[in-house]
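Example complex used in Figure S2.
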Amino acid sequence: MALKIVKGSIDRMFDKNLQDLVRGIRNHKEDEAKYISTCIDEIKQELKQDNIAVKANAVCKLTYLQMLGYDVSWAAFNIVEVMSSSKFTYKRIGYLAASQCFHESTDVIMLTTNQIRKDLSSPNQYDTGVALTGLSCFVTPDLARDLANDIMTLMSHTKPYIRKKAVLIMYKVFLKYPESLRPAFPRLKEKLEDPDPGVQSAAVNVICELARRNPKNYLSLAPLFFKLMTSSTNNWVLIKIIKLFGALTPLEPRLGKKLIEPLTNLIHSTSAMSLLYECVNTVIAVLISLSSGMPNHSASIQLCVQKLRILIEDSDQNLKYLGLLAMSKILKTHPKSVQSHKDLILQCLDDKDESIRLRALDLLYGMVSKKNLMEIVKKLMLHVDKAEGTTYRDELLTKIIDICSQSNYQYITNFEWYISILVELTRLEGTRHGHLIASQMLDVAIRVKAIRIFAVAQMATLLDNAHLLTGNMQRNGICEVLYAAAWICGEFSEHLENPMQTLEAMLRPKVATLPGHIQAVYVQNAAKLFSTVLKSQEGSTEGTAAQETSQLMIDRLPLFVQSANLEVQERASCILQLVKYIQKLQQKEVEVAEEVSALFAGELNPVAPKAQKKVPVPEGLDLDAWINEPPSESESEDEQPKAIFAKEEPKHSRSRHTEVDEKELARRREARKQEQANNPFYIKASPSSQKVYQESPGVEHIPVVQIDLTVPLKVPGLPMSDQYLKLEEERRQKERADKKKKEKKKRKEKRSGRGRRHDSGPESEEDITPAHMVDIVTEEMPENALPSDDDDKDPNDPHKALDIDLDNLVESAGRRPLADSEKLPVRSHRAAKVAKSPVEDGDAENTPPSQEPKKKSSKEKREKKKDKDRDRKKSKEEKKKKKHKHEEKEEDLLGGEADEPVVQSEDTTEVVALPTSTNAEEAATVAATAEADSVPEATSGTAPDSDHDEPKNSELEETKSSKHKKKKQKKEKEEKEKKKKKKHHHHHRHHSDGGADESVQNGTVEDEEPLPPMSNYCLLAENSYIKMMMEDADEVCDIQGNLQDGSQVVVSVIFENKCDSLLKSMEFNVLDSLNSKLQRPEGSGPHDGFTVPFQLPPGVSNEARLVFTVQSIVMPQKMKGTLTFIVKNEDSSIHEKLDFKLHFTCTSYLITTPCYSDAFAKLLESGDLKCSSVRLEEVNMPFHHLLARICFHHHFSVVERIDSCASMYSRSIQGHHVCLLVKTSGQTVSIDAKCDEPTLLGNVLDEIKQTFSQC
Amino acid sequence: MIRAILIFNNHGKPRLSKFYEHYTEDTEQQIIRETFHLVSKRDENVCNFLEGGMLIGGSDYKLIYRHYATLYFVFCVDSSESELGILDLIQVFVETLDKCFENVCELDLIFHVDKVHNILAEMVMGGMVLETNMNEIIMQVDAQNKMEKSEAGIAGAPARAVSAVKNMNLPEMPRNINIGDISIKVPNLPSFK
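Predicted assembly (1448 residues):
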């Protein structure tokens, strides 16, 4: 036997092994392919042998050949054979080969399932390891489903080597088989705390990958990761966690606040650049998500920017690159702090490293202002000239255009300059971005009316010099600009200096070499020009000239009629015939110019790119409904197989059903008219329907100020953008001088007055006025278009399937436990074995408690609701209210506390606030404002309602002042929310006003002035031990629930320990009134308090949520309450108590609800609302601040804003509509309000008045 | 996630290719060529990050590479990986190779690509980083090699002898093409613990 083996191996030793193959290939450099093909023949022979060693050797060689690009899939079966060898050596070769060349459509994969399963359970850890490694490369959905359970068992293997591989491969399994995520998640989470650092790192890795795609499902893990972050020393793990936090913070700003400190510490302490860089990155993410409201956040920004500057200045190019990369993230939210490093970034533009130059370019995008745009673009133009590689030059070109066109051409003060830049860019050779330049030219010429004269002149020059652009060969791309040039010259031909010349330029024979679509535009616009020329020539009574023009057309057009391009041909022959007819008329001396120009009368308005998509489906139109019912079966007498002809049948039925009675016809006609009237794209004949566009003060009526004459209108030849720089500089200087004069005057006047509000230096942005007032016509959107921002979601993202709710799995009393169908499939022969499911043997605490039918039913209900939620999510309706939905969802995911105010009380650290605070934000709370009358008291008293209104503490003063301060501070999400709202509002303008208000100044409306921060936290009560702050209303949770079972109001209270001792056993109690009641945990009496589920170590603050039920919401409420707690020192413990007053304002019952202007108008027309109004005197703030304040403090949303007038809307938790019309003139603000509940309205108005009297 | 790991020499000859996503052989070769084209034209003292490998991934992906003497080590990764972390990982990889092959040179990679794969498998699995600790990696690789040897046993002896004989008279196997001074680390990049 042994002899046989030795003999076999002696046979083998003259076989070619991998090394021989490699050597052979190296020795046959000239005829490599031939040599390899003989080798492959040999390999085929070897694979036919029985000896597994020979086969393994062959497979090993195949793996090498695969790397060289040879397809070896034909040997897939042999690879499987080698994989199933019992020897590790061969197994490893087999698995390696499989991992290199197997993929989902390899059919032999299904043969491997059992082999892999066997290897996974092998006693040899390396067999298992090798199988896992291989599987990670070629796992298919089938394999994932069949093996998920086995792999999950391996996650608890005794050997860490196996555990870490099993954990890591789970990510691949989740991707292929998303159903496995829920059952496997608890164990995965467990592995985060595995004693082995490798396993821990693998688990972190997997969860980070999962969370990156669907972060919100992993928010509840934040405390755990927080702990890991503070305890781990493994840089790799730290980096992953910190990156993960970066993904989580946008969803939970409070998390960010907690993170700032440890991250800052890490930044200061770590020596690893990689870690430092990721910390900086995440701090940036946090700051972005907070955007303001952090008291010391400017310090953090400064720290980041300063660290990044160090990176950028480093000689190591990698650090420089990353520094710039991170800088661009800060730029989005804190452009000011980055702008101060402009010098550094401009310097990077000159770097020899292209990657770095590109990064620096990205940064430039955000650094421009009205002031420096020209200067920066000039610098970029220099680079364009210098750049040798076309890719970098093209990148420069797109950046220049991006920079200039950003936010609606906000920074362009002189459009002539911009057109000149565009024209200069056309001189680039061989760029791919001709169409980009062309679309910019078109956009500017169409939307900026004042520039048309200049643009047309430039375009005419371009057309004249078209040969320069196209050269002999068709240089790809750049000739696209001729498309724009031809169109602009044609469309705005009335501005042409010499239309005849341009017409001739457009009809040159050379044009026929241009691409078809450009020729088509040439032909069409030649016709437009022709009409203009005719008009001028007929006017000047030179009949012959007009006839000559016609002759020119007739001579030149046949060239295009012969074009191979259908479009060109068609247009040309059509226009040719037309011109011939015109010529005939001219010969009879008929005046035709008027009629010809009527062909091209009217103005084209720009249409927003998404307009078509946004056309709402009219009410009552069901796109899926049959237009004609398919005939019922009885009617179809013909015996043709239905399956084939079913589609044709409606046609038959039509002819059969023609005899509809007159009435029915009339009714249908009426309905159709109605529908057409609602359809913005239906061209309406009746004058009444046209007024939609005509009557409203359209674009025509907006005064277009004449161009400032400091800029010469005619630039000889092609323009030079540089000259504008000088002109601009002079102009600005002049302006500045004027302004200074004015300001001096003002100062004199104001000296006696209150003093200036902003003393902006001459350099400030606002001072730079555009060279000429430019109206930028906004793009048209269909009426009633739905604002939405998620048009660009990728439906094919594999990670979408992993968007699975995991939270309640983790909490022990999960609300959506694993259903039977969710268990991982287990291989079984008999039904009896099914019982041994992974869920039951592994995670007993997570199994559905089927023995508790009561609970289960409620769980089911919730589950249903969740499903509903998900369905809703899908529906388009919901998409548009993305934010809104998000809140609802979150609430559903996390908000167990909404109906059970008892928060989990396992942890006592600061960290515990994280998951719950999530809830606070997202579950949308309504809290009542504690007014200044909340009186701090230090001494005890047992009855909760005793002696609450005698101030014993001298801190009253301080309380008041601190309250105001607090109000100005923290703002976080609310600010964000408002931004969203504003954005929404902006969107809204676009569609709601139709043609009415379509013109916006350069830039956007929102960019006025930064709003002062506001906060909804205010002091509730304070003494020397503890401070309580409460959050003023956000929103109300679960609106639907509220409408049915009374309204719930959630109050978040922050408890802050001010003393040096531990505070524990805190009990929060209020004296219920008839109207408002604190929801207490089940089983406790009406006078029992709510036990605060945490203790407070010295200096720590934490937050608790309390739920109140409120019956009537029309009146403000006050509730008295007491907080009792034990102060524990080393040697003693004292009982203490603190009284407070909760104040529920009417405002706190309002929910910010977006409303569209059409719905708003309907509401106002309905007549159900009562009216009331209020006047505010001496309001000293900009109008948008005023609106922001109302939005923020009183939960309104802006429906529409026109100049100094805005309509706002809000809704109460019980469904009352509240509408406001806010007008301002000078310092007086008048608010007209309507609401279906007059008492509520009165109170809300009072509160608004109070808000503004305070400031 | 790591999308692909490529090693090729200064002439673009592949020495190892590991794709964690399926591509056809032709596409793989094209990716290697394109990556080589991108990487090879870069100067020595520019940054080690590259965007715009059109074939792999797209905007979310980056090429992170290091150049050691005759070899380029290129990792194609998405944004969930830390750039500096991956640079460190490449360093760990090369150092591990150096330990396992005892003063590694390009020829080691040429003739023992299977071993390189095995070492890599202990570091990166299915596109995710499995282990960053060099000692741990070497320990596992050694243990597996030992197992392989014990399996070959006596039966493997003649084959080894022949292989030794084959290698003896081969002047074309100089060991002087060293991979360069891998002991020089990038400043400020302490490796992982």
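Chain A touches chain B through 84 residues (CB under 8 Å). Chain A is about 55% helix and 10% strand.
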